[in-house]
UniProtKB/TrEMBL annotation:
Residues 142-371 form the Sigma-54 factor interaction domain. InterPro entries: AAA+_ATPase (IPR003593), AAA_lid_NorR (IPR058031), CheY-like_superfamily (IPR011006), Homeodomain-like_sf (IPR009057), HTH_Fis (IPR002197), P-loop_NTPase (IPR027417), Sig_transdc_resp-reg_receiver (IPR001789), Sigma_54_int (IPR002078). May play the central regulatory role in sporulation. It may be an element of the effector pathway responsible for the activation of sporulation genes in response to nutritional stress. Spo0A may act in concert with spo0H (a sigma factor) to control the expression of some genes that are critical to the sporulation process. This is Stage 0 sporulation protein A homolog. It comes from Sinanaerobacter chloroacetimidivorans. The lineage of its organism: Bacteria, Bacillati, Bacillota, Clostridia, Peptostreptococcales.
Amino acid sequence: MRGLRILVVDDEQDYCNVMKVILNAKGHQTALCTSGADALSLLSKNTYDLVITDLIMPEMDGNQLLHEIKNRYPDTEVMMMTAYGTIENAVGAMREGAYSYVTKGGNPEELVREIEKLQSMLELKRENELLKEKVAHVDVMLDSKSPGFLEMLSIAKKAAASDTNVLILGESGVGKEVIAQYIHRNSLRKNKQFMDLNCHAIAETVLESELFGHEKGSFTGALHRRIGRIEAADQGTLFLDEIGDIPLTMQAKLLKTIENKKIYRMGSNEELEVDFRLVTATNKNLEIEMEEGRFREDFFYRISTIVINIPPLRKRQEDIPLLIDYFFKRSQNEMKKPIHRIDPDVMDFLKNYHYPGNVRELKNIIERLVVLSEDGVVQKEALPTFSQRSKPENQASIQDERGLKEIRRETEKNHIESVLRRHNNNMTKAAEVLGITRRQLFNKISEYNLEK
Ligand SMILES: Nc1ncnc2c1ncn2[C@@H]1O[C@H](COP(=O)(O)OP(=O)(O)OP(=O)(O)O)[C@@H](O)[C@H]1O
């Protein structure tokens, strides 16, 4: 079991010191202070799982301290220490939210047992939260008939069993996060936290605070202490998506963290030990990023002990029918809209489309089809506009040689057409959705020769 972060509060310094020896010997991290005011000051800077406080102290007594703690830090548990003869007070404290009480000067085993009970309870609480999270994420489809995908899965499974850093590569929407979670679920860390962070387009200070956390007041706007993702991933898995987007300075900081397994929250001198497995992902070509000086080589070698390449959906055509079936079932369940007929043209399209947006695009198209279905029937008119126009055989837009202007015009035209259709040609509504005036919309309609 993971040791707890404990704060002992007692006006007798010697007693505090003895407690520290006992608690640290049991694997806990113990901090000490000799008054309620000092305790509150420490609590405002550090996080503790448990405060063990003497009941009788000058100025602020244990009950007052308990009251403050429960008000300000409801997740921190409090244990009362009480001398013989004041047990009633301690029982009263439990009514106020104290976890339990122990007799001061009694057998230390009593204290150790109480803390062990608390550890089990906290562990259970954490596992419960994780379980809830997992149920939300576990709904994926990894059956496959594609040799490339199956080989990738087998590498992922082997990687999961080790504790090495994994880098997942693949186009946008292929399921990099899905595989990161698969690795976590198949690893020894599966009962601990899976913390993820998408590093794309996050300002550097925000990214630093997201990763490392910060103390209250460490920068303008830091109104509260915040635990960073790295700290929260302790004993679990940290998944950093879009790793190719993080600035060089942050790469250097992360490299140091991976090597030392230690962090400081922003604005704090307290060194925190962290133990996590790092999984990263990107759709960028990191070799080019390194050549062009945007990605550190030493960082690359650290994070890429095992590299997993997820093939794009167009290279695993044989899996498309499985995924179609899976997403139809899932969408029907989620939306409570049973489907009993799918227009054969829709199926034909779904099976032959080249899915530049990969599994995400397939999933979105099917969700759309189910939303737009009427009386359990999926009509071909419900397909997105681009797909009604392009026949499967001319969908190879990877070799599209048109200029940007033409592409922009086509996208604009298709989008206006689909918004108009969705709103039954209601010009006011469509103009509002498109963010233009009615007059501008009229002009676009005549420019693109769209039928109203
Ligand atoms: N095998 C799968 N089973 C179920 N859903 C999947 C599967 N693969 C991908 N998806 C779904 O497709 C969407 C995209 O997946 P994911 O976010 O993992 O892709 P990604 O490669 O990380 O994308 P990006 O590069 O844009 O971050 C998600 O909604 C995800 O749930």
